[in-house]
Design brief:
The protein has 379 residues and is α/β, with parallel strands linked by helices. Helices cover 40% and strands 12% of the residues. The chain contains twelve helices and twelve strands. Helix 2 runs parallel beside helix 8. The chain binds pyridoxal-5'-phosphate. The site of pyridoxal-5'-phosphate has 13 residues, from helix 3.
Length: 379
């Protein structure tokens, strides 16, 4: 038995998505920049993908720029936005994904920007009063706060932050990698200037994503080269990736209600079963609060035990793939900067389970049973 419960790291490709991509791997191979028939056919497919994505997000096609995924899109918006508007001050948080944290950290080290960190509440939620204080002190900043944390699942009140940014004339970027394809984003309503997506988080292909950049807040290009993506991102397009991305988003929106209900019920069941079976179990961040966290992520806080260092290894031996924090940095099982910032010096164990539409009740029960077995040995 092999069970995959690491869907915040990546999700399996939906076969329907693969079918949509296939023709662009074989017969429709033209370069979309070519003006002949082979190229024009592929260009039309890319523009249709862009239009479909824009319709789902309630923005214009020109505001969608395809990238290689979330990391590139975050880098592009942060460096391009700061450059275009000559912004020298950034407000962010210590629990951002490394795509944001390291980008800003590097710029701060080079003194390109000064950086303020917003206070977090005990469970990792943003202290909005402190955010407003920082915005008041530094009007015209760039604010970069993630919509949902990939390790603990905490959700940001993105509408509220958008309003605050408008009041204090800040450029608002949000790393929305964990929420695009899982929640509805209505960009005609949210006051955001830049956001990002990665197809592989919602059953699309790896290496394909996009950034949304509001049309009145254009940025400088990050990847220079040809005139692709309206001069905003050089390089021949990842054609089948883009086709797969658009198809995956279409399916995600089509089936969102049903899949949300299913995944949420798996998370709920796991919380209940863990409480029943592991004495002293708790949950990191707001991940056990279904109203304030991603419905797909549960970060389990395990009692102090000799088992903690080996828990992921032992789960793996039992056929269960899960993660200890952010699996985005090549399977790292220790040293989560998110848990480190929220629980300094903690000796408790951490396992992040993250679910998708393909997971079942049986898989959840099996994972809980195996985890309980491990903790009985030393508890
Ligand atoms: C919140 C968040 N931001 C950015 C990324 C990076 O995206 P990508 O893997 O497409 O570069 C990830 C995951 O990998 C993520 O979870």
């Amino acid at each position: 038995m092999r069970i995959y419960l690491d869907n915040a790291a990546t999700t399996p490709l939906d076969p329907e998505v693969f079918e949509a991509m296939k023709p662009f791997m074989l017969e429709d191979f033209g370069n979309p920049s070519s003006t002949h028939a082979h190229g024009r056919k592929v260009r039309a497919a890319i523009e249709s993908a862009r239009k479909n994505i824009a319709e789902l997000l309630h923005c214009t096609p020109g505001e969608i720029i395809f990238t290689s995924g979330g990391t590139e899109a975050d880098n592009a918006i942060l460096s391009g936005g700061l450059h275009a508007y000559n912004i020298k001050h950034v407000i962010s948080s210590p629990i951002e994904h490394h795509a944001v944290e390291h980008t800003l950290g590097t710029m701060a080290k080079k003194s390109v920007i000064s950086l303020s960190m917003v206070n977090l509440e005990k469970d990792g939620n943003v202290d909005y009063t402190h955010l407003e204080k920082l915005l008041k002190e530094h009007p015209g900043s760039l604010v970069s706060l993630m919509h949902a944390n990939n390790e603990i699942g905490n959700l940001l009140d993105i509408e509220r932050v958008g309003e605050l940014c408008e009041t204090y004339k800040a450029y608002f970027h949000s790393d929305t990698v964990q929420t695009v394809g899982h929640y509805v984003h209505d960009l005609s309503k949210i006051k955001i200037h830049g956001m990002v997506a990665a197809a592989h988080k919602f059953h699309g292909p790896k290496g394909a994503g996009f950034m949304f950049i509001r049309k009145d807040k254009k940025i400088q290009p990050f990847v220079h080269g040809g005139a692709q993506e309206r001069n905003m991102r050089g390089g021949t397009e990842n054609v089948y990736g883009i086709i797969g991305l658009a198809k995956a988003l279409e399916i995600a929106y089509r089936d969102m209600k049903e899949h949300t209900r299913h995944i949420e019920s798996l998370k709920k069941r796991m919380i209940e079963k863990l409480r029943e079976n592991i004495p002293g179990v708790d949950f990191h961040g707001a991940s056990a609060d279904l109203t304030r966290s991603l419905y797909s992520v549960l970060n389990v806080c395990l009692p102090e035990s000799d088992e903690n260092d080996m828990v992921l290894f032992n789960l793996d031996l039992q056929g269960i793939s899960a993660s200890g924090g952010s699996a985005c940095s090549s399977g790292a099982t220790t040293g989560s900067h998110v848990l480190g910032a929220l629980y300094p010096g903690s000796k408790k164990g951490a396992v992040r389970f993250s679910f998708s539409k393909y997971n079942t009740v049986e898989e959840v029960d099996y994972a809980v049973a195996k985890l309980a077995e491990l903790y009985k040995i030393t508890a």
